[in-house]
Each structure stands twice: as structure tokens, then as C-alpha cells.
Amino acid sequence: MAKVTGGTDGSISGAIGAVVFYKMRGKSYARRAPKERAKNSWSEGQRRYFTKFGKAAAFWRQSTPEAIKAIFELAAENMTGYNLFLKTNLPAFNADGTKIDFEWMHLSAGKLPMPHRLRAQRVADDPEKLEVTWTDENQEGLAGSRDVLMMIVVRDGKFDTPIATGVFRKQQSAVIQLPAGTETIQGIYLSFASKERKLYSPDQWFGI
What we know:
The chain is α+β, with helices and mostly antiparallel strands.
């Protein structure tokens, strides 16, 4: 049964017959309700996909830091941050959803451009520090000289909340102190954020 909210000029939610009404980002939409299928009618490939999808969805709900969710909400257009995250990261999960390929995973998204030739490696004589270099193209548009380099650390398969390194795009190089517990760090994701934190770039994975 459908429900009308907000009076005679309000919105409809719910189902009328085979049509489902719903709202997303303040707008109302209608779509045909999916036909129910018996589970035993699914192919093996479909069962694997649904299992993988469920694991990815659970990862968003249970293992994704709120700061990362906020980045995807900002980047999402005509969809939710949750949907953008799944669209972006479903390929990173293996067939049964139990393992993540870090090189395929992305924890930042948005229109802010990444600089060219971004590189990162541990300092040879001080493994608790990371040397990062890139090329600042000084291009017009969304990129700004004071965009901040962001870092997400991965340790024991878990993702830390994003860290603002205090390094600006215009610097083109920096030596960054890694957080405590470097022996458990598997790698990092690097990206850039605008000064006001309204725009973010995609990220790049570095196994260190």
C-alpha cells in the first residue's frame, strides 16, 4: 500500500499494484516492482554475485569509517554515497566477497583532479617516514595550490580514518610521518581534498 505525506501536494511512497514509489535526494520516482523469484531458480553465477554484493554492502555498513562515507556522499550525483561506493568497489571483492584487492579498492572519490606521477615509498633509513612526490600541473579548474594531501592507512586488512597530512598540492614533494604501529601497515591510499573539504579526488593505492 502506498502512503501520501505532506498533504494533497505531498509525495507518495510505497507500492500501488506493480508500481513502487520512492524518494531520493528530495525527488520522487516510480519504478516497476521486481518480480519475486524462488531462490532455487538462481544460477550459480547469480548466487555468487548476490553473496559478493551482500559482503560489499556489509563492509560499507560495518567496516567503513564515517569520514570515508561522508566523502562518497559528497561525490555522489543522482545516487546515494552507498550506491556510489558499491558501484566503485564491487570489483575489489573476490567471487565470494571474503577478500579485498587493495589495488582495486577506492576510499576517496570526487571531481578534484589527481596530480601526475604521484609516487610514495618509505624512507630507506627511516621506515616510519614516507617520501611522497608528484607533479603540480598548475592547471586551471578545480585543482587548487592549497589542496591538502590526504592519507588513509591500511593495517591488518582494516582501514583507518582519513588523515590530513598538512602537505599542499603546490609543494610537489613531502616526507610524511607514518602513524604508530608501522610494522602492521600494509599500505596507504593517497588523495587530495580542497581546503574547505567540499571536494575530494579519487585515490591511489601504494603497498608499502
